[in-house]
């Protein structure tokens, strides 16, 4: 599965938001490398291309990029639930690909947003795992960090087939959900433009009310909830970029899901190598350097209130 680059017009719109400056970019990357060299607990192996993608995702803010890099590496040490055993051929990853269709569309929207879709392929509750899908999402994001600089993103959750039981499995305890939120919200340089919920069940309001305390206010403001299917997206994006089942030309749900399964498998050696390299050495951390992930985890305690959905 190839992520197609921006068209000339899409690139112009992206450049309007974040004007390119190659010379400044070189100086910024040099400044980040200089900072990394002074952080004995952080790895130094990341190449310039990936650092540039981090910086671009942080809207060229060096300080923001430093913060995300610190959290990116720290999360891989502090959250083994999502960052250990990331073998694409592992049973939990393969099972998750069979249960949940999760993929990135090849083409950008006219505005230059990259679109990702998540939907159920199989509704069996016993095969639905929040830990596995979080691990898989983070693996896909890591691949994207290697391949493209992304300014903004659109996430689409198709809730067709989701039951109260599925949502209940997402919140068995506050701890695992909080950790998943930390991993996906805080450790990646991806900016969200919008989140669409399609085929939303009548009880979606009750579910979201439980999640709101875990989410950043800016994230909540990006939610758009629809009771219909893919046709609800037509006012917001060219339908041709969407999957065939939603009137588009990107390919079918199974084809797109399988393409990303194979793409993850193709990166198997990289994932196995990165699992050893992209970690912090906490014993070498300077007293003046605090782990933001560790601080957040210290506050994870108690349990979720009982999920009560009518």
Automatic annotation (TrEMBL):
Residues 104-254 form the CRAL-TRIO domain. GO terms for molecular function: phosphatidylinositol bisphosphate binding. InterPro entries: CRAL-TRIO_dom (IPR001251), CRAL-TRIO_dom_sf (IPR036865), CRAL/TRIO_N_dom_sf (IPR036273). Pfam families: CRAL_TRIO. Gene3D superfamilies: Alpha-tocopherol transfer (1.20.5.1200), CRAL-TRIO lipid binding domain (3.40.525.10). PROSITE patterns: CRAL_TRIO. This is CRAL-TRIO domain-containing protein.
């Amino acid at each position: 599965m190839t992520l197609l680059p921006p068209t000339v017009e899409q690139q112009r719109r992206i450049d309007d938001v974040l004007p390119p400056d190659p010379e400044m970019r070189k100086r910024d990357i040099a400044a980040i490398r200089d900072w990394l060299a002074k952080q004995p607990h952080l790895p130094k192996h990341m190449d310039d291309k990936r650092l540039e993608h981090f910086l671009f995702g942080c809207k060229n803010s060096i300080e923001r990029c430093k913060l995300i890099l610190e959290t990116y590496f720290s999360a891989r040490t502090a959250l083994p639930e999502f960052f250990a055993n990331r073998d694409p051929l592992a049973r939990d990853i393969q099972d998750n690909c069979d249960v949940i269709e999760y993929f990135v569309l090849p083409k950008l929207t006219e505005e230059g947003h990259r679109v990702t879709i998540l939907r159920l392929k199989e509704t069996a509750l016993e095969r639905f795992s929040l830990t596995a899908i979080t691990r898989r999402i983070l693996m896909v994001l890591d691949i994207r960090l290697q391949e493209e600089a992304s300014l903004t993103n659109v996430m689409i959750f198709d809730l067709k087939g989701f039951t109260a039981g599925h949502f209940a499995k997402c919140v068995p305890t506050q701890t695992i959900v909080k950790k998943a939120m930390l991993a996906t919200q805080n450790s990646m340089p991806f900016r969200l433009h919008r989140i669409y919920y399609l085929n939303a069940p009548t009880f979606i309001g009750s579910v979201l009310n439980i999640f709101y305390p875990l989410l950043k206010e800016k994230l909540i403001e990006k939610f758009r909830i629809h009771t219909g299917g893919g046709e609800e997206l037509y006012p917001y994006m060219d339908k041709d970029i969407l999957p065939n089942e939603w009137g588009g030309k990107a390919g079918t749900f199974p084809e797109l899901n399988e393409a990303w399964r194979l793409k993850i498998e193709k990166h198997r050696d990289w994932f196995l190598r990165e699992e050893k390299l992209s970690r912090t050495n906490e014993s070498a951390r300077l007293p003046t350097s605090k782990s933001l992930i560790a601080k957040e985890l210290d506050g994870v305690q108690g349990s979720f209130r009982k999920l009560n959905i009518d």
